[in-house]
Amino acid sequence: MISYVPVFLIVVTLLILFLFLGVSEVLKKEAEEANRIYSTQVMKLIDQSLSAIDQSIINEIIANHSSIRDFFTPQQEINPLFQTYEASLELNNLVLKHAIIDSIYLYRYSDQAILSKNRFIPLSAFGDKEFLQAQLTGDASLQSWSGSRQYVEFSSQTEPISVITLVRSVILFSGEEGKIVTNVKITALQKILQDLFDSGISYAELVDGEGNVILSRNGSELERAKQKPTEMYLSDIHSPITNWHLRSGVEAGKVYYFISNFSYIWLIIGLSIVALGVIWIVYITRRNYRPVELMINQIQSLSFKISQKLATHTGGNQLSFIENAVENLIEESNKFQQRHEENIVFRKKVFFQEALEGSREITPEQWTDEMIKFERPVKYSGFEVVLFEMDKFTDFKMSYNQKDQYLLKFILCSVIAEVAQNNGVIVWHEWMDHHIVGVLYQYQDEQGENSERLASMMEEVREWVQSNLTFTVTIGIGSLIKEAALIYRSYDDAKQALGYKSGLGSNRIIAYNDIEMSPKGDMFRHLQPVRTVSQQFRLGNPSWGEELEAFFDELEKTLLSREDVESILNYLIYQMNRELMELSEDYGEIWRNKGLQPINELLQRFDTLREFRGKASLILTETSEHLERIREGRNNRSLLAEVRSYIEANYFDPDLSLNHLSDKFQINSKYVSQLFKEEFGENFVDYLAFVRMEHAKQLLSDTSMSVQDIAGKVGYQHSVSFNRVFKRLTGKTPVVFRSESVK
């Protein structure tokens, strides 16, 4: 009797093989469908990204108030520079809006001018002119997105960028006015494929309409992708927008296709053997073991259920996983790109300020890393910081709206960058304040470190601004330093140089090295003239104006920083306020409203000492006239004038006193004292002492008389009393005052 065991083993083995082939066929179809759906979604993602760019450009062309449209059809009533600037901003916005865009530029037929987000130049100087000329002649004009090509914008650019390009004509009511050329980075599309097909199992490649491979999942696969036969692909998705094909499949393709193309003849043979085996087993089982039949039925039933459940479960999960993965990947990619673009601009500004202010220690390695991140030149041999301060910024803000202010500031920065570029110097500029732009000049070799050349560049910028803009700039030049970690020293020197603008004047260049070698002035020697001016002003003496002019003349001859100038001017205001507050209330009110308040406001916003001098003189003159009108309106005006004249003529009389004046003018001595206090803010004794000391100072300066003789000349019988009063009013002894006057 033939045993059923070998037959049973053969049949079970063939059943397992049949099950494997069945499951593999189901999995193959599900894999192909899943790969097709996934590739379709990826292709749609690429198409949507490119279509969004195309639609944005079309919107800019047809929009009535588009800055790009205005660039091709300039409006006569708007400044051409402003229109160009607005169009440049719109290009930048498009690049920021679409992360995969590498660059956009406009070509205008009327003047063959090119405007990109970086520069405004003629076609002849443009790095991509050969491609554009090919589009203009029509020999190679594009109807859709191009294949991969090499793009160079700057003639000095050493490494071209791989891009795909879309060229759109700008057709307005007047006809075709120019072209808009959009370049998308191949690396950006490659990043999408790499992220979406990031596994060792699958692969993908993008092919143009002529069969040329544009890009593969990564650069290293490009040559291998070109050699892959067509039948190895699981899916080939065609894009009606770009006429491209996205081909994808399984990386281990040969094994996959060997299994998937396993000959169906073997399947038929297997089925035949299974059928014979079943008959054989049924025969043997029926003859020998009835339970075996039940066992086989159970195995077949269980196998069928497992197969059906596996197919349904796997298919559902794959689609859900693919859909969720694509959506999450797109969302995270957009968020990351937006955060990256925002952070890079902010980090550049923060690093620039940290370098200039010295709030961060910068090693050579850190400098190299940051410059690579910011895509700036790394090499340097030295640095110089220059500060450009806009003169009379308060008037500038009142004259222009916010938009015009930004435009004029942009022009200023463009001029600075262009002059530096023409001289072969690398610059980095950021606004340190609303009216001050900091510029870091980076030299790449020691031959470029030339102070005379830098001064010439600064003079060129200053003259251009003065001739072409409605404002001027004062320029502070810092010292030359050799290390990136010491940039803050050059910045401090530039600030210190700019601090002398108040005394030296605006619309000029102030170098730290020149200031450092110049002798500095002594601010304390200006304090005594301040007291003299204040006293003469309070007394209504007409000579106060001459004293004030002499004070400003001496101040302008002295090299003082803005801090020192403000200190002296603050002391002038303080001293005048102190003197005038001694007068009666009606005088004090005139001084507070007409003099003190306007001159304090002027102190907060003046640019130069010359500006303060002119405006302060007008304020004080007007205030003095108001005070004089009050004096003239009083009944005792003529009496006080007589008393005052008598004191001026007889100050040297030792017997001059209130009783003497009372007898002379037949008035009560207390009344005379009261009139002096009301009109001049001080009593008779202090006024007489002031008059005598003014004459004493004149004698000390102009004659060689002894102090004792001078004391007798001005009405003092004892030199000790004279010395005490002189020091109280002037802060110095007569001997010290004479020695300083001789100097």
From TrEMBL:
Pfam families: GGDEF_2 (PF17853), HTH_18 (PF12833). The chain crosses the membrane at residues 6-27, 264-283. PANTHER family: ARAC-FAMILY TRANSCRIPTIONAL REGULATOR, HTH-TYPE TRANSCRIPTIONAL ACTIVATOR RHAS. Residues 641-740 form the HTH araC/xylS-type domain. Signal peptide: none annotated. Keywords: DNA-binding, Membrane, Transcription, Transcription regulation, Transmembrane, Transmembrane helix. This is Helix-turn-helix domain-containing protein.
